[in-house]
Each structure stands twice: as C-alpha cells, then as structure tokens.
Amino acid sequence: MIYEGFTVTKDFTVEKIYMDEKKTKKQVLDLLEKNDLTLDIGLEDSVGVYDGENLIATGSIKGNTLRCIAIDQDYQGTSVLNLLMDTLVRMQYMRERSHLFVYTKPTAQKSFQFMGFHKIEEVNEKVILMENKMDGIKSYLDRLSKHEVSGDKISAIVMNANPFTNGHLYLIERASKESDHVHVFMVSSDISSFPYSVRKQLITEGTKHIKNITLHEGGDYIISNATFPSYFIKEKSEIVKIHATLDLKIFAKYIGPSLGIHQRYVGEEPYCETTHQYNQVMKMILPQYGIDVKEIARKAIEDGTISASKVRDFIATGNIEKINSFVPEATYTFLASEEGKKIIHKIQKCKKRH
C-alpha cells in the first residue's frame, strides 16, 4: 500500500512499513545491517523507498526525532535520500512537530547538512546530534539566559522526579543552603510513569517554600537515558557512557555558561548501575568546563534510603501506606486524587503484565 499523501516519483515508490509483516521486517533488518545499524525500539512509524520490489531505503520517526535511516549502497548519492527525508519530515509535520532532531554516526553529518540539519554536539566519532533549526539551541539558551542570577555560587540540579520524593527535596534544600541560587532542570520527555505535567506540578508545589531556586523545563537539550537511541552504536557496553558524554557536553558547553553555573548537585547512586555510570562520567567532564560536581549521599529514613523507584515499587505492590514517609505532602496528596489513582492503577496494571 502506498503511504497516502506522500510523494511517489516515476522511479521510486514510498510505502508505509508494517513491522509485523515478517518478510518486510527482514528486508528492513537486512538493509539496516548493511549500514551497521540495528532496529530501534518503540518506533512510531516507518517507511520504505522501493525500486520495483526492492527496498532501497528506510527511515522511522519517534517523538521529534528521525531514526534508523538507511540507504542501499547502490543508491547513495542519488535523490533517494531527499525523497526519504522529505517523507519523514512531512510525517512529523502531520503530527505538528516542526523542530526535529537526528542522532546519527558522524560519517553521515554531511548528508544531513545537505538536508538542512545543523550540528549541536559530537562524541568521540561515535554519535552526532543534529537539529533542523539553525538557531534552535541558541533560541533555547537565549530564553534560559533571561533567568541568569548573579552570585559566587550558582548551582544546578537535573531531575526526572518520577515521582517527586523527599530525596529530591533534600537535594534541592541542600543545594539551596549552600548556594546563592539553584537552577533546577526538570526532564520533560514524557515517557515516565508520572507524566511531565504531573512531575512539574509536584516539584513546583513541593519546593514553593524555597526562595532561591528557578525551575526550568529540560526541553530537547537535556537528554534522558530512556530517550537516547542506540541503534547506531555497535558496542552496547558503551551506550551509557556515550549518552552521558553527549548530554553532559551539551550541558557544560551551552547550558552552564548561559546561566553562569559553577556547580552541579547530584544524588549518590548506590543501586542503579546506569545512573552510577552517568555520575562517574559527570565527574570527568564537567570540571573540564569549570563546573564542580557535588555528589550528595541519599537521604535515609528508618525504612532505608529514599528513591523514586522504591516509591513506584510500593505503588506497584499496593503498599500505598508506606509511601507517606518517602514523599512530600504534595506528592502524597496527589496520589489520593482521581488523577493520582489513575496513575496508581496504570503502574499496578503494568506490574501484573510482567
């Protein structure tokens, strides 16, 4: 079936790809493998460009990113890439997404530059992040700089807060006491159990007594480990390090200077290996750009150390009463609301499926 609304030239056909069709999926996997790529997870939509019956190009979308773009070697340097990219961009526009990003191998930089994409940052010849707006990150930094506060100790914290706990609150209060001002960046990718709108609400309500902080939406330039694609990275053991390096270089080179940040606070991570690795990379990269790292031991209570994952586990197992000592009043009150009960039900339902 031709993908309705998209260009079909006299030479090539563009079709929607359904990954549940085994023959089609194998064609996609084979083409990706020839380009040293793998199939990413959670793709929203995929298309293929065909020369007769032969799949000669494929690409996919997920959120505001273009992914898994591969061209048959015999068709590289032809109009096929233009046709594929035009199709993917229009798919995004149909979803009212105009600011788009591409994570790819640095060897593909020139091809995407011809398509109107601009480099943001690169990591060790492993990955390059590009966007289709020349002033994309500059516009973001211009908005941030309006909140710059002068002082000898300007600090930053980045948090997902899924949900907002007393541990998050402890970290912010600690930074607040030790700093002239604290910029708190809330990871805004909407893939957590608690939607971004809820997480933002709980952080806002839970910190309203702290006067020397500014809350910021993380936006597209605070990269969540959960949204970082790895389909172009062969060495799977390097994925966490590459993601952390990319995210932290963007923070250190762009975000930090725009707000005059001197130090970044982070909670100690004794349990999650991914977060622990991220913290280790942070200690290596940020000081190179004049930003100190303050790693703070987790807040502990009688029932152990506080973590958002532990709160979600309590929810999943129905131990709601145990949550009270782990979260601020605003979070506990929200969980008792109708909207909160819907999230509880969703988490418990997901737990039962696994």
Automatic annotation (TrEMBL):
Catalytic activity as recorded in UniProt: holo-[citrate lyase ACP] + acetate + ATP = acetyl-[citrate lyase ACP] + AMP + diphosphate
PROSITE patterns per record: GNAT
UniProt-listed SUPFAM superfamilies: Acyl-CoA N-acyltransferases (Nat), Nucleotidylyl transferase
Keyword Lyase: yes
Entry EC no(s): 6.2.1.22
Keyword list, A-Z: ATP-binding, Ligase, Lyase, Nucleotide-binding
Protein name: [Citrate [pro-3S]-lyase] ligase
InterPro entries (UniProt xref): Acyl_CoA_acyltransferase (IPR016181), Citrate_lyase_ligase (IPR005216), Citrate_lyase_ligase_C (IPR013166), Cyt_trans-like (IPR004821), GNAT_dom (IPR000182), Rossmann-like_a/b/a_fold (IPR014729)
Gene3D superfamilies, A to Z: 3.40.630.30, HUPs
UniProt function note: Acetylation of prosthetic group (2-(5''-phosphoribosyl)-3'-dephosphocoenzyme-A) of the gamma subunit of citrate lyase.
Signal sequence extent: none
Record flagged with keyword Endoplasmic reticulum: no
Domain N-acetyltransferase: from-to ranges: 1-135
GO molecular function: [citrate (pro-3S)-lyase] ligase activity; acyltransferase activity, transferring groups other than amino-acyl groups; ATP binding; lyase activity
